[in-house]
């Protein structure tokens, strides 16, 4: 069963278990989906209100985009688990002989390069979500501005969580050039999107008089 089809209780129990998946990557993707869904909620509370007629078109577009983002995050929960399975198998390969060591190294490298893709995409998806959160925080219904702040906070958590899954995979790569390229991109996203998310949270807090 896909993680998105599980009950909250079932997913939490599986996350709490010794099972290799879901783990930090899947949890980060879920948090991203929660962020996108909250942003969608703010948009839904804004559309159709005469007070916000000037931003009706923007909010209608936002509803479509956030729905797509939430769906992508949910799919990434399973893609992260699927990408980890070959890596888990590679870790279990024997390495007694030189031939076994060489074979394991090749399979580990391929598995690491595959496993790093979903968390990196989670980060990229978080970056795409932030302008929509900003739109809600600035122009959305004032009664839901706190929800925009929560969305920003969750988006940052998803971003940071996914980054650690990128870095742990690049750490073991033999292709250091490729690993450094991925690390650079992840750090760029952390710096740019992370800063944006923090600024959004603070702006909402200021609106609430904090």
User: What portion of the residues fall into strands of 2 or more residues?
Assistant: under 5%
CATH architecture: Up-down Bundle
- CATH topology, what is it called? Four Helix Bundle (Hemerythrin (Met), subunit A)
| pLDDT < 50 stretches | none
How many beta-strand runs?
0
Helix segment tally:
7
Query: What structural class do the secondary elements suggest?
Result: mainly alpha
Number of domains: 1
First-residue to last-residue Cα separation: 43 Å
How would you describe what is shown here?
This protein has 210 residues and is mostly helical. It has a single domain, classed as Four Helix Bundle (Hemerythrin (Met), subunit A) (Up-down Bundle), CATH 1.20.120. Helices cover 80% and strands 0% of the residues. It is built from seven helices and no strands. It has helices spanning 8-16, 24-46, 56-91, 98-115, 117-139, 145-171, 176-207. Helix 3 (56-91) runs antiparallel to helix 4, helix 3 (56-91) runs antiparallel to helix 5 (117-139) and helix 5 (117-139) runs antiparallel to helix 6 (145-171). It is elongated. The chain starts with 7 loop residues before the first helix and ends with a helix. The model has no long low-confidence stretch (mean pLDDT 96).
Helix and strand topology:
Blueprint: H1 8-16, H2 24-46, H3 56-91, H4 98-115, H5 117-139, H6 145-171, H7 176-207
């Amino acid at each position: 069963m896909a993680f998105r089809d599980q009950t909250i209780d079932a997913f939490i129990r599986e996350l709490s278990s010794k099972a290799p998946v879901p783990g930090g990557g899947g949890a980060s993707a879920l948090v991203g989906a929660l962020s996108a869904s909250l942003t969608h909620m703010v948009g839904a509370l804004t559309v159709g209100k005469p007070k916000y007629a000037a931003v009706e078109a923007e909010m209608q577009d936002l509803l479509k985009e956030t729905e797509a983002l939430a769906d992508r995050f949910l799919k990434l929960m399973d893609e992260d688990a699927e990408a980890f399975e070959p890596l888990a198998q590679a870790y279990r390969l024997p390495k007694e002989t030189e031939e076994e060591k060489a074979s394991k190294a090749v399979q580990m490298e391929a598995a690491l390069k595959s496993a790093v893709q979903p968390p990196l995409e989670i980060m990229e998806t978080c970056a795409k979500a932030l302008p929509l959160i900003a739109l809600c925080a600035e122009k959305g219904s004032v009664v839901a501005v706190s929800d925009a702040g929560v969305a920003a906070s969750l988006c940052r958590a998803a971003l940071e969580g996914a980054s650690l899954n990128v870095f742990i995979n690049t750490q073991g790569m033999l292709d250091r050039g490729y690993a450094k390229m991925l690390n650079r991109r992840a750090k760029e996203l952390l710096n740019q999107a992370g800063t944006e998310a923090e600024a959004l949270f603070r702006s909402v807090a200021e609106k609430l008089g904090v």
